[in-house]
Amino acid sequence: MTEMSFLDHLQELRKRLIIIIVAMFIGMAAAWPLAPTVQHYMQRPLREPSITQKWQYEATLWATQKFPALTSRLGIEAKPPQVTPHKLNYMAPLEPFFVHMKISLITGLALAFPVILYQLWLFFAPALYEHEKKYVYYFVPFGTLAFLLGDLFFLNMVWPLIISFSLAYESEFLFSMLNITQFINFCLRLLLLFGVVFELPLILLILARVGVVNLDFLRRSRRVAILLSAVIAAFHADIMTMFAVAIPMYCMYELSILAIRIFGGEGRREPETAVAPAGVDVPPADR
User: Fold this and answer.
1) Phi–psi pair at 78, nearest 5 degrees
2) Taking the model in full, what pTM does it have?
3) What whole-number distance in Å separates Cα of residue 257 and Cα of residue 264?
């Protein structure tokens, strides 16, 4: 553990922020040619059935094959999911270009995420003991993996549900004219949110290992976690999105408790100092 003054902390923070910003710009430049592919993937729910619709069809097909009499009596029929293709529209001349920039920025952030995590770790490293600094070897790779898993979970499970729920309101009297900026902004905002939410188990596990939180505190705070999940999810307009955000968020909290129970250890402890015989001076441990 290293003692630093307030000005030293500010200088260290500035240094880390500069490196993070440079890494993000480099990542954005690398992600620029990938932006159309990413946008195409975001628009999949406008062209293809969601994975849950496919699962529902396969489950119904299995049930009709295994129990034809029962499903016929109940009126259950296996119908392949169908989606009417939709296109996004834009109203301003440079609107697609600015959307391209936003997608490149967020994709570049994902590419630079290992650097961002490492710089954050270096900023907090002076407050850790030497034996605690080894956690960086777990924090950076697992933190990056958790962020990517959160984004993939959102794009493949949650985002198609949200879009299919929205398009379900179409009728002969009502049709959708989805704007590209609003569509992409909504998707990117939730991408960042799910990426951060999936970091929660790793962050709480490390905080438990260094003694900042403990298992009993997290168990007692379940109601607060439910409330915070609902409050964060309430910033989104429709009830479907609220549930799609709040439920995975609280599941990550429960996964954090499970991870701490298995890997949490005994919390933060200073390195033990050897007891010297009488009359022998032992220098203090470096901190």
Assistant:
1) -80, 110
2) 0.78
3) 9
At residue 246, the pLDDT reads 87
Instruction: Find the mean pLDDT for residues 108-137.
Output: 81
Amino acid at 110: A
For 190-238, write each residue's pLDDT tens digit.
899 899 889 888 888 888 877 778 888 888 989 999 998 888 887 765 6
Residue 230 and residue 170: Cα distance in Å, rounded?
Answer: 28
Asked if 159 and 187 touch (Cβ cutoff 8 Å), the reply is yes
Q: For the chain, where are the alpha helices, taking DSSP H only?
A: 6-31, 35-42, 51-66, 68-74, 95-111, 113-124, 136-153, 159-167, 180-197, 200-209, 215-220, 222-233, 239-263
Q: Which amino acid is at 270?
A: E
Which residue is it, tokens 């933190």? 143
Nearest to 152 by CA among 266, 248, 63, 21: 248
Q: Is the pLDDT of residue 36 over 90?
A: yes
Full DSSP string of 151-203? HHHIIIIIHHHHHHHHHTT-BTTB----BHHHHHHHHHHHHHHHHHHTTHHHH
Structural tokens at position 209: 């290992």
Q: Is the CB of residue 282 less than 8 Å from the CB of residue 273?
A: yes
